[in-house]
Amino acid sequence: MTETDRVSLNNVTHVRGNGSNNKAFELGDDFISVTGNNKRQAENTRKGLSSYLSLVSKRITATEDYIKGHSQAFKLFVLGILGAGYVAYFIAACVLDFQRAIALVVLTSLAIAAKLYELLKEHRGESISQCFRPAVTFLKSNFKWVFILAAVALLVLWLVLDTSRRPEQLISFGGVWMFVVLVFLLSAHRTAVTWRPVFWGLGMQFCIGLFIIRTEPGLIAFEWLGKQVQTFLEYTQAGSGFVFGNLINDIFAFQALPIVVFFSSVMSILYYLGIMQWLILKISWCMQITMGTSPTETLSVAGNIFVGQTEAPLLIRPYLKNMTKSEIHAVMTGGFATIAGSVMGAFISFGIDASSLISASVMAAPCALAISKLSYPETEESPFKDENNIKVAAGDEQNILEAASSGASASIGLVANIAANLIAFLAILEFINASLSWFGGMVGYPSITFQVRSEIITTYALCGFANLSSLGIMIGGLSSICPSRRGDISSMVLRAMITATCVSLINACIAGILYVPLTDCVELFKTSVAFNATDANIGTCCKDLFQKTVNNGTVYFEGPWSAVANATLYFSKCCQCCGLSDVAVCN
């Protein structure tokens, strides 16, 4: 016998004479039996694993169904934990250093106020509206002209009292009405002008400016906001420094223009999260109920406070094709009359006062709507009268990282546009200065140049995007959003740009009426031979000096007065005049 597959055929024995027994065959039968058992065991194992996984899956599904069925309870539980954690954090921050926590207190208060307003409007809004409806109807029918005459009388009285010391402010007041009359004369439909949005818009602009420029809370609030914006923009240096290295310290383009990229990316993130839409809706509501403008145009103009002239119309993209010509004109005017947040960041990096830029952009929004309705009045019936039918559009990004990336990418063209305009306009300005100097030199005045002296007023005048290069941006941007209205956009864009220029100039005039330049007290004291009690500036400066004076047996001064050489002499003269001798620090 031969050996096959390691099984030898040997020791053959006969059994009952009917055949032979061979152990090799018995070994093969055992091998086949073991293999079959292994397969059955593997099959049983697979079945057991499958049933186990099926059981686990059923339990997971049951858990998911339970969580979905009690999602509200879980949501409240999680929100409760987060709320309790924030309250503990808020209390700890205030206890440790309340002065440092003021910003946190302000933001928390604003968030609570906004939430309470939404809850009140949702649950009691209709009943509150019904309570005030008879009063509103009564005022509209009987006291409309009384209210108008009272507002005009108060304005005249305020102008008389306020300009009695600074009559030059009346020049700015005259400038406002000159531009209003000019826009009215150039209006597309003078007989169709509705004066409600015009006067309400100018009134809102004046009130906002009065709060920001003249009141201490408004001034402090916007100065604080400006400082926060400046601090926020300084984070740009981390990215631009990594890319450009030490060039950011020496070259303007690498120092200022990356701010546009950073700000654009941040705005895109806020837009993706819905924060900008919420804020814009609140501002647009205030303008809409007072000025009577449609929700679509108001929403776009309010958006221009924060985003650019091509981004703001995206908020109302689904409605552009059905908007009236007057509404489209208002959308374009709002884009030209304000500056985008990213451009604002670049302007701040130039050294322009941040609080003035922010307040100018806020003031320009109601004025843009007002002057737009004067330049191109409504002659059609707007299909968007009910704000409940207006839904704010959101971005197309799928996640926050894509939003940040798309915002940065979208700023590339804007950065190039800013750089090109700076090169062109600074070169033109230098040429004009050289020409004026040459002409002035012919008659003995070589120092004549085209330089602007009033920085604050100029900030308000230039806080807009109404320039020739923006015409192409506006036409291209709006036409790509709504190709069917390309003809209307192209026919009205030049009028909208001129109207927006008037808006910026009116903004500057309002600032000229309200802005009071700070007195240089040290220079005033130096040039004053005798301190006159009738001089209001002397009295103001003396009060400021007293506030910075400490008298605990030895007189010394704090703040900027500590570096003034003759502060003690000025202090002595102040105590002797102006009816201030009874001030505590003088005794």
UniProtKB/TrEMBL annotation:
Transmembrane segments: 76-95, 101-120, 141-161, 167-186, 198-215, 251-273, 330-352, 414-439, 459-481, 493-518
UniProt keyword terms in alphabetical order: Cell membrane, Membrane, Transmembrane, Transmembrane helix
GO-annotated molecular function: nucleoside:sodium symporter activity
Residue ranges annotated for the Nucleoside transporter/FeoB GTPase Gate domain, each copy included: 254-351
InterPro entries (alphabetical): C_nuclsd_transpt, CNT_C_dom, CNT_N_dom, Gate_dom
Compartmental location: Cell membrane
GO cellular component, one term: plasma membrane
Record has DNA damage as a keyword: no
Membrane topology: Multi-pass membrane protein
Annotated Concentrative nucleoside transporter C-terminal domain residues: 357-451
Record bears the keyword Disulfide bond: no
Domain Concentrative nucleoside transporter N-terminal intervals: 175-247
Stored PANTHER family: SODIUM/NUCLEOSIDE COTRANSPORTER, SODIUM_NUCLEOSIDE COTRANSPORTER
Family: Belongs to the concentrative nucleoside transporter (CNT) (TC 2.A.41) family.
Record protein name field: Sodium/nucleoside cotransporter
The organism's taxonomic lineage, starting at the top: Eukaryota, Metazoa, Chordata, Craniata, Vertebrata
